[in-house]
Fold:
Amino acid sequence: MLPTELLMFRVKADVVEPKRLKPTTNNLKLAETLIRTSEDNVGKRRADLDEDLRALEAGRPDFKVVRGLAHLLVNGSSTLAYRS
Structure:
């Protein structure tokens, strides 16, 4: 589950509607990059992964999407292992 600060939604007629990420070419490439970055950091320190993820989101207007996908990948149901 995403933390509150990463949720994207709109309120329409007193109803909260989540914004869903469309499977566009750019979004799929972003997901692929995040997966590859996570895989490249398996067995390394979590701080190394966090540094790589910060570099990916730097200067991007959609940094919230990057953070959200990374959060789901790292803290969701993935089975990747990182050292503390």
